[in-house]
Automatic annotation (TrEMBL):
Signal peptide: none
Record protein name field: DUF433 domain-containing protein
Family annotation (Gene3D superfamilies): Winged helix-like DNA-binding domain superfamily/Winged helix DNA-binding domain
A family per Pfam: DUF433
InterPro entries in the cross-refs: DUF433, Homeodomain-like_sf, WH-like_DNA-bd_sf
Coiled coil: none
Species for this entry: Parvularcula bermudensis (strain ATCC BAA-594 / HTCC2503 / KCTC 12087)
Length: 195
């Protein structure tokens, strides 16, 4: 796998199974360092992390190492950021301190890699299409409509079955993208909800 696409702070949090506050704390303590780049969409995030940050955050959570001193967190990240994208193996981040990230985070990391590839291949935002609302490429299916259907109890396979020409991974990426990039504008008011 040769993907090098970066993730926003919120995408990283979603994929690692942590809150955005956990990612922000790692940035604040300078364990992780975000790259400043042009937003993918108007008004979107401009701070990005490498996909390997998912390994670090998911491993810290899975191994219950949230209280690990910052110097060891930095040492762990120094080892993890050098792993070739798509590769997981145990890393020694201090003398005799080995973390078996290959066992701890294989599932969230695989999901992150699938997401990055699917997002880059299938999620587009064009001002000419629905005013720039992110959609699945070559359709008018918004990422938010996919997420809404999932939240209403439908499954990914059911949604994908309604659109046989759209790959299933496009819907999975759309849901993650929508969670990490909430719709801009006024929040819904409870009294406007459908009865």
């Amino acid at each position: 796998m040769t993907t090098t696409s970066d993730l926003t702070v919120k995408e990283t949090a979603q994929l690692a199974g942590v809150t955005a506050n956990v990612v922000e704390k790692a940035l604040e303590t300078k364990v992780l360092k975000a790259k400043e780049k042009k937003a993918r969409r108007r008004g979107g995030a401009t701070r990005f992390l490498p996909v390997n940050a998912v390994i670090y955050l998911a491993a810290i959570k899975a191994a219950k190492l949230t209280d690990l001193p910052v110097k060891y967190k930095k040492a762990l990240w120094a080892q993890l950021k050098t792993l070739e994208v798509g590769t997981l193996k145990p890393v020694e981040f201090a003398p005799m301190a080995i973390l078996k990230v290959d066992e701890l985070v294989s599932e969230p990391y695989a999901k992150a890699l699938r997401y990055v590839n699917a997002r880059d291949a299938h999620i587009v935002s064009n001002p000419e299409i629905l005013g720039g609302t992110p959609v699945i490429a070559n359709t008018r299916i918004t990422v938010y409509s996919v997420l809404a259907r999932l939240e209403d109890g439908e499954g990914l396979d059911e949604i994908a079955g309604d659109y046989p020409s759209v790959p299933r991974e496009a819907f999975e990426a759309a849901a993650i993208y929508a969670k990490a990039n909430p719709m801009m504008g006024r929040p819904k008011r409870p009294w406007h909800a459908a009865a």
